[in-house]
Amino acid sequence: MPYEKILTRNVGVPGSTSLKAYQAAGGYEGARKALAMKPDELVELVKKANLRGRGGAGFPAGVKWSFLPPNRDVTYLCVNADESEPPTFCNRVLMESDPHMLLEGILIAGYATRTTIAYIYMRGEFTEQFHIMQRAVDEAYAAGYFGRNVLGSGYDIECYIHRGAGAYVCGEETGLIESLEGKRGWPRIKPPFPAVEGLFRKPTVVNNVETLACLPHILTRGVDWWLALGPKGSHGTKMYCVSGPVKRPGCYEAPLGISTRELIYGPDFGGGMRDGMKVKACSPGGLSMGFLRGDLFPKNPSADKLDLAQDYDELDCKLDFDDTRRYGLLGLGTAAAVVVGEDTDIRDVLVNVARFYAHESCGQCTQCREGTGWMYKIAQRIRAGAGRRYDLDLLAEITTNMGMMPGLSICGLPDGAAWPIRTLVQRFRREFERHIDAQAPGAVEQAIRRVNPAAYELPIVQGRAVAPERGSMSYEHEWSNAAGT
Amino acid sequence: MPTITIDGKKVDCREGVPVLQAALEAGLEVPHYCYHPGLSIVASCRLCLMEMKMPNPQTKELEWAPRLFPSCQTPVRDGMEVRFESPAVQGNQQHVMEYYLVNHPLDCPVCDKAGECYLQDYSERFGHASSRMVEDKHKNPKKNIGSDTLLYQDRCVLCTRCVRFCDEIAGAGELRVVDRGNRCEIDVFPGVPLDNPLQGNVVDLCPVGALLDKGFLFRQRVWMLRHTPSVSPADSSGATIWIDHNDEGVHRCRPRFNERVNQWWISDEQRFAWRAYVRREHERLTLPRQRRGGETETVRWEDLPAILRFRFEQAARAPSGPQAPAPGSKVAAVLSPMMSCEEAWLLGRFIRSVAPQATLVLGHVPVVGQDRTFAKGFVIRAEKCPNRRGVERAMESLGGPNLALADFLKAAGEGKFAAAYVVGGYPESWVTPDMQKPLAKVEFLVVHDLFASPLSAAATIVIPGASWMEREGTFMNCDGLVQPFERAIVPLEGVKSDGQFFHELCGEPGLFRSRRTREKMAETMPEFASVFVPRQEPEYAH
Amino acid sequence: MSWQAVDRTRVPEEQLGPGLSEAVKEKIRAFFSRYPTKQAAVLPALHIAQDALGYVSLRAMKELAELLEIPPSKVMDVVTFYTHFWTHPKGRKTLLLCRSISCELLGAGKLKDAIRQRLGIGEHETTPDGEYSFMTEECLAACDHAPCLMVNEKMHKCVRPEDLERILADADNDRLDIPRSDLFDAP
Ligand SMILES: Cc1cc2nc3c(=O)[nH]c(=O)nc-3n(C[C@H](O)[C@H](O)[C@H](O)COP(=O)(O)O)c2cc1C
Ligand code: SF4
Ligand code: SF4
Ligand code: FES
Ligand code: FES
After folding, report:
1. A7 FRET partner, CA 20 to 30 A, in A268, B109, B383, C103?
2. B159, C23 in Cβ contact below 8 A?
């Protein structure tokens, strides 16, 4: 076993969810240590450990906590267990194998932030996991880890599980807050940030399940141990997920910084592709982070110079907070890889991805609401065999002006929609073009006229598709890419 | 007062307003849908985005931050520098406008809002010439959501102004967004229609033609309308409004911003007050008439002043009865709270000029229920007339004997009055048997009213009045605020506007001009030296 | 006809559907103490209502609104936002199939066709005997078991079209093999 199992030590271990088993393995020692410290010392400690959020944004948890206003009587802690990003399931694995690890993390974070009530916002589709967690919460209450005067420290904290009901956007922290308040999960504008004005307009901390589950280990084993794991800037261990046509889909733990190839092919990870297939594409950080080209493509001859414009194998991308950006991805995300095998039509992937975001956009911001829906329709038309080369440019342009520039929309969902679609269209353009060139002649005109009979009179293939004179950002390289269309 | 730089120009702005508001007040055109100064800020339309200078985290130098900020949600700070004229901002505007058309039916030719629609305006000003959307559009239904309002869902741009209005201002929360993503719709709970007393505002608030007034539906193209500033006569709050009208008459009323009274809103009563006048138009009195024995005959307007002067002087001179306290008290004038301040003052002056001891009476003040205050301070007044205070003020300044209406009626019933000039002007029937009987005892009864009534039937002289839309003047609201209203439409054929008639009655030459009359009034009543005109607000996409 | 409007101002009594029993309301009230506002209890309340009635009827929404002291429109808003809630009756068991990327790559599409063919129903439809309803949903966070199919609370893992018959034949195909918390009733 090359990497030590820390968060996943109990995966597949029968009976691991009970308090007894957890305590027998030294459980709640970290919490005891924490309760003996001052909350502010605890915040400093977590800052020092540079524990970056595992929910997707990678924001350091200690820094987030220190944004809380100093004078406050009510603080809420929301535990983000709304894991809905395809294909991520590490929080689920963690909660169903080691619920008390999360609860201990909640207690530590709660104490550090002087939280009065912690809500575990768990997605509604987690049924089995809900019952496991609820039982663990009951046990923890009974053992005095929650409630009044926790372990005689004088600290009071309540902990409730709140069940969602099927909405990806409720994983966004302010969407989660709105949803908890009993409204539709429409994310809020920031500022004010939740730390200042969050749940019920009170200071609130939102943290991911896995982020919190790291806390007991940092406390018991020390910051130095933690900092020694993983590369600089991306410390600690991470639960990687891998799914798709690999031999061993699942959730595997390793320090940050392993490569995508290792995650797919490593014998302790994905174990390679089924049926000796090659990888066509891989989205290594959860769907929203974007796709890499797989080993179906030739290796880059100059090993140290990255060339994203060429169709080269990109599986050497390291899964940490920085290398993913170098490869033109949005970030590390949830470090959940989905592997697309060589037998899959890339158009199906595009439709599936576009549908996800169109279905999950909350509908507040114009770009996101209309842009995701529009892209889905274009993707469907391309798959139906009525695509235009121009559609590829159009898709790339829509992604540019709905999510590429920060601040265009209220939350990060359109960025998440933009990256996979954009990377698909750019990195697999040749394949799309092959499909388009193989279409029946006139298929496009027919498809468009079915929608709009007036299009008979219009030069639909080129003329209606007037390119804009101005754009949110320059996308010239794409236009040059499209030369010959 | 903070000063900020917008597109290189220094702009002084009010404390605490968003940059968007400051820019609009400075006369800039910044597209926006979801922002409305009277509602909470959601920053969801993403049209108003701007660039802002921020300190570079590395060099600490101020430079354009590589992102966009919603100007509606960024409060002004002294010295801040923003810009709208940049490729990124304008590119965003262009794209967002394109997105708005992705599922919009483009049915402007049959849309009531066409001409004052901000989707049209912004598309032309900030958008693309053509749409690149060739896919199937969502087709959303039209919904009947209330007794006065229709929702054409497919035209909606989901700015949620209507939803926030119902929540925050009206407090009834009937409207909601349902579903999510681009399947979002605005809806009411089935069977719980939009019927709060302020609901009409959602139609004005809607930047596009999604929410429509059933009464206005398909009636006029808005570019055929002229807009006249007015004050609503529906209650005593003095809500300022626009009357939209053309040669065919009045078509609708809309709120006119007023920081002291109604803000951006009006109640439905105020909005639809004009309809009562129009609905009963066939009952309107149209020519002055005089009773001769059992018959009535029309009188020429020119002859009326002389007749009235003669008859009132005669009544005033007649020997007073045994109990009557002083000469002249056999004459009275009942001033209606529907009259303008000027009219009340002129008529009072006329009566006092012919009968110096004439009694002045404040007419019937309609009151319905109690004042109703809404969440953010909008008030619907129980007093359903615009100018009780103004009339009282005029009576006070004229001095001399006054009587309350009830006392006057009692005295009239006892035969103590030989002549009375009674003004009505109410949109609804107001004459009760309790009034009718005592007034029958008045020998020379002049009734100046809008509609035929038992009282006008019994009067010696009937003078047709003009509605408030056909007059000009000022109303003093329940808080003493004097606000002018202008004439929107010409009086009905045969009718002379009340102000003009009283002007002539007082022997004044030329045309009645309320401003000139007010100058005279100001000699004894300084509050009429100036009137309150609300601040000119920039257009908020509605 | 395009100019005709859907009437939202009235709703026939029979369309309101079933209401909530006092026991259900009591269960909902037990959640009030968890939150500083009553409105915050709307999600648990809707779960409980749907578990009791099979779906969230208009009458239930109205009664919930009364219970939570909010306008009924706010309940409707929440119900329609979340995909878990049904606004029309559903069957005793709901087949919930993941349609996101990992599941689709491993054959969720074929499984969907198999379900539709076997049960003769499309999405959001119910078999005539009222036993099964069918819907698809985005990633269920069980991609390691793709393609996955939930029957009410029970997750069936790595389901191939040929497994369908076996799953449907099992009367306990929705029974969890771990102890349930009684905070929420089984659907
Ligand atoms: C559209 C969207 C969906 C998100 N979904 C999740 C989620 O399912 N789970 C999660 O932990 N964080 C999610 N996030 C990230 C959260 O907003 C937030 O950054 C995170 O919960 C913070 O926790 P951390 O600091 O512990 O990472 C999502 C963000 C966006 C923009
Ligand atoms: S960006 Fe999209 S998902 Fe996020 S708040 Fe706006 S509309 Fe909703
Ligand atoms: S109906 Fe009008 S006001 Fe309401 S959300 Fe739609 S566009 Fe905005
Ligand atoms: S986002 Fe600023 S006006 Fe809509
Ligand atoms: S993709 Fe099906 S469970 Fe994640």
Report:
1. C103
2. no
Mean pLDDT computed over A47-58: 89
Whether B67 sits inside 8 A of A405 (CB atoms) is: yes
Count H helices and E strands in chain C, helices first. 7, 6
The pair of structure tokens assigned to A197 is 């004005």
> Residue A417 C-alpha to ligand 1 middle, in angstroms?
15
CA–CA gap between residue A319 and residue A285 (Å, rounded): 8
Close Cβ partners of B77 (under 8 Å, ≥ 6 residues apart): B2, B4
**Does C149 contact chain A (CB < 8 Å)?**
no
Determine which residue's CA is closest to atom 3 belonging to ligand 3: B206
Fold exhibited by the domain C93-169: Glutaredoxin (3.40.30)
Spatial contact of B142 and B155, defined as CB atoms under 8 Å apart:
no
Of B90, B83, B84, B155, nearest to B128 by C-alpha is B90
* Closest residue by Cα to residue B476 from B397, B536, B535, B404: B397
pLDDT digits (tens, 9 = 90+) for A320-358: 888 889 999 998 889 999 999 999 999 999 999 999 999
- Which residue's CA is minimally distant from atom 12 of ligand 1? A55
Architecture of the CATH domain A237-341 = Roll (3.10)
Percent helix, strand and coil across chain A, each rounded to 5?
Answer: 45, 10, 45
pLDDT tens digits, A379-421: 999 999 999 999 999 999 999 888 777 889 999 999 999 999 9
Enumerate the residues of chain B whose CB falls inside 8 A of the CB of residue C80. 178-180
Looking at chain A from residue 75 to 114, which residues have their Cβ under 8 Å from any Cβ of chain C? 83-89, 91-93
| Chains with ≥3 CB–CB distances under 8 Å to B | A, C
Q: C10, C64, C68, C73: best mutation site toward chain B, by most B Cβ within 10 Å?
A: C73
Residues 6 or more apart whose Cβ sits within 8 Å of residue B315: B330, B331, B355, B418, B419, B443, B444
Cβ pair C6:B187 closer than 8 A? no
Whether residues C141 and A89 touch (CB distance < 8 A) is answered with yes
Helices A429-437 and A346-360: angle between axes, nearest 10 degrees:
110
Residue B383's DSSP bridge partners are: B367
Is A347-436 a CATH 1.10.10.10 domain? no
CA neighbor of B103 nearest in space, from A457, A404, A451: A451
Whether C143 sits inside 8 A of A182 (CB atoms) is no
Contact B180 C80 (CB under 8 A): yes
Domain ranges of chain C: 13-81, 93-169
Helix segments in C54-187, DSSP class H: 58-68, 72-81, 101-105, 108-119, 164-169
Q: What is the CATH number of domain C13-81?
A: 1.10.10
pLDDT at A461: 37
On whether any CB of chain C is under 8 Å from the CB of A180, the answer is: yes
**Is the pLDDT at B226 greater than 70, yes or no?**
yes
Q: Determine the average pLDDT of the residues in A225-240.
A: 88
